[in-house]
Amino acid sequence: MRPGHDDRRDNDARAAAGNGLLDRRIFLKGGAAAAGAFMAFASSESAAAPPETPPGMTMSGAPLSPYGSPAGFEREVTRTLIRSQPGTTGAGASRTPLEALEGIITPSGLHFERHHNGVPTIDPAQHQLLIHGMVARPLIFTMATLSRYPMESRIHFLECSGNSGAMYGATPPAQTCGQTHGLVSCSEWTGVPLRLLLEEAGADPRADWILAEGADAAAMSRSVPMAKAKDDALLALYQNGERLRPENGYPVRLFLPGYEGNMSVKWLRRIKVTDTPTMTKDETSKYSDLQTDGKSLLFTYPMEVKSVITRPAPGLKMTGQGLYELSGIAWSGRGKIGKVEVSADGGQTWAEAALSAPVLAYALTRFRIPWKWNGAPAVLKSRATDETGRVQPTRDALIAQHGANVIYHYHAIQAWRVEANGEVKNVYA
Ligand SMILES: Nc1nc2c(c(=O)[nH]1)N[C@H]1C(S)=C(S)[C@@H](COP(=O)(O)O)O[C@H]1N2
Ligand SMILES: [Mo]
After folding, report:
1. Dihedral (Cα; 219, 220, 226, 228), 10-degree rounding
2. In the chain, what are the domain boundaries?
3. pLDDT tens column, 390-419
4. Closest residue (by CA) to atom 19 of ligand 1?
5. With contact defined as beta carbons under 8 Å apart, do 96 and 178 qualify?
6. What does each C-alpha distance from 422 to 46, 297, 323 come to in angstroms?
């Protein structure tokens, strides 16, 4: 920096939008330091003296363990809002604590759960998968035979169409970010492309649909267009490198990238090749979207473009004014994320956030942007655009289009109000 250089002017030059949003590149190449933007976060008082010897250096450490678990100090980072329908034990959902996580991969133990009638116990040595219906050769696969087929690994989000449904309500839910938006998670899924098995069974070219059925007490079943089944549907056996967790469909689940979560049938036991949709209970009484005119949308598969700031967010507290990195996740069931804009003045001005690599189709994408908080109340928003050009709507626009009878597919711009005391609240703004 040149002597006599005006610090404030330099900061202003790097301002990307109103109320303290700075250029997303400021953290690169010492830009933040050059702009005088860093506060002294670390205490410098005792920096001159050598640190005391911590207890862990004076005795041997803990032993090795057969299967690792999170640090004891992180015990509070758990799935959240674990709720079961009255009178049941396993018919309900649990949510991913989004505000406690970083990057794009959800640890398997924190992947959200949604079960219509609990988690079945399935012995992989006994489990079979049947492919039948309009096929030349009905086939039965054991998990051992399935494992001999070529596999693919892909990083994809899974989102329940009921995610963020409470945001249709008249007042914003006073919950943590994960409690409101945590029916979305992202994993590396590995398994056998369904296409290979349909080819082997000799699916009739006139069959435009399949039915997928789960081996749980809900016998969850959904119709899937053959085009999707042959495009990128996966029979997932592994999640983040290990076999699926029981909660997520062990030993095998259907995985349909970008589609509403309920179609990715867990504990998969049967695929029937059909010429029409089967009109199962799970796609007629549920998972249709009631509109204001009293009609329902049927078969609303792709999850629309969406984003949410996860830091800061309800469940976390700001620790005083100064420089922060805002961080969040964006995703789209239509492909890759194109850009994410962030506002710190309630949507009056917007700045483009940096997208952290990798930016993958049908995956969570991490975005980040520096923000110099002046300590006054502020409303933060993020607005994602996907590679097809679709933009997240405002809440008003979403409700104007679909009404508020609908409980699924909420994907509007989220506003968080940062209070002067550092608390972060969910607001409609
Ligand atoms: N067999 C079966 N498959 C199922 C379900 C179920 O209850 N039974 N729930 C569905 C719903 S509604 C969602 S959102 C996803 C949730 O997957 P997860 O529990 O792995 O997060 O699984 C879907 N597949
Ligand atoms: Mo769901």
Report:
1. -140
2. 128-278
3. 999 999 999 999 888 888 999 999 999 999
4. 113
5. yes
6. 27, 42, 13
Nearest CA to 329 out of 90, 105, 31 is that of: 105
The tens digit of pLDDT for each residue in 109-141 reads: 999 999 999 999 999 999 999 999 999 999 999
CA–CA gap between residue 184 and residue 110 (Å, rounded): 11
Of 111, 116, 235, 247, the one to substitute when testing ligand 1's pocket (max ligand atoms within 8 A of C-beta) is 116
Amino acid type, 400: A
CATH number of this structure's domain 128-278, picked from the four choices 3.90.420.10, 3.40.50.150, 1.20.120.1760, 3.50.50.60: 3.90.420.10
Residue carrying the six token digits 């607001």: 427
Residue pointed to by tokens 């994602």? 384
Does the beta carbon of 179 lie inside 6 Å of ligand 1? Answer: no
**In sequence order, which residues have a C-beta less than 8 Å from that of residue 15 and are 6 or more positions away?**
21, 22, 23
Put residue 398 in one of left, alpha, beta given phi > 0 → left and psi -120 to 50 → alpha.
Answer: alpha
Q: How far is the CA of 161 from the centre of ligand 2 (A)?
A: 5
